[in-house]
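Worked Example 4.2. Read the sequence first, then its structure tokens.
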Amino acid sequence: METKSLVLNRGMIWAGAAKFALALAAALAITNMGLPQYVTGPLVNALLLLTLEWCGLGQALVVGMVTPMGAALRGILPLPLWVMIPFIAVGNAAFVGIFHLLRGRNRAVALVLAAVVKFAWLYAAVTALVVWPLQVAVGGNVATVAIPQALVNMMRWPQLGTALAGGVLAFGVQGVVRWARQDRRHP
């Protein structure tokens, strides 16, 4: 009996690792496709929630840290917004964490609150960087990192829309998966 339990545990560990690896690969694929923000944002946010549901909170937090770096390296996150990478990672963590805490009560309310917190955090962060721009030393010279208004706008209201759209997309995927599992159980 112990051997069977050990084999089941190993299988579950490998299955969990495979799901997490797939989530990371999907995160990098999404951010490297070169799609516009209104497509990439919902896909990333959906992936964050699906990773939370299928892999766990820790794995979703890691995926949330990888996505802004992938976006920056691909060029979806333009160079002046690279200063936003830590803020985006924290915003993703807040999105996933708040949804995780509240999903048991009401998934729709959890999504809205998580999206609003992520949006508010990014709005505040980019606004602070406009008011108090970072100074960077490059080759002995100090340069101010100015974020163009179009890029500032990317980090404001669109973030709320992409977070909500991503949540709706994740809910739809989960519904299809549940339906498919029920259909297989009852031929």
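Now turn to a second chain, presented in exactly the same format:
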Amino acid sequence: MRQAEITRKTAETDIRLSLTIDGRGAYQIDTGCGFLNHMLELFTRHGRFDLVVTCAGDTEVDDHHTVEDVGIALGQAFAKALGDKRGICRYGQWLLPMDEALAMIAIDLSGRATLGFQAELPSQKLGTFDTELVKEFFLAFVREAGATLHIRVLAGENTHHIIEAIFKGFGRALGQAAAIDSRFADEIPSTKGTLGGES
């Protein structure tokens, strides 16, 4: 089982996270930010991971530190659970419709941290959630996971639908990339023989 546990404690957040890559889509998530909880639940179910997250953060200020630090912890968990990435498919892509919204997600578990984020979010807030934090979450994730991630929103008018399409598509694409390719289960999918950031 490819699993990881991450504990991250700062002056701003206290996070405990456990991840099973080869899971069933089960989750227990309490970040103190209701919208983030919902998006992580969608991500987990569609990626077929198992995820437990608790976060006590300074949400009396705003959700910024919570969202960013949960992204950091999740990226660290994937990096740890994937290990040397032997046998993985490496690449994943998904085109995800959510009502009028359409999001394209493509990921390479390359070891290199890059985010391409082209998503116009019509509303600046959903309830108390600042929608600009969606990009901050993914920036934090790719830096820690060592992943190249491209997110493009191709259509959409409702901000909730757009972000939901992004997180569902992210789960699907990451699940695809992290899956073991049975044809090459003993190989690292790189001509350099490593996925440590330069392949």
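Notes for the reader: The chain is about 35% helix and 30% strand. Residues 88 and 180 are 4 Å apart (CA to CA).
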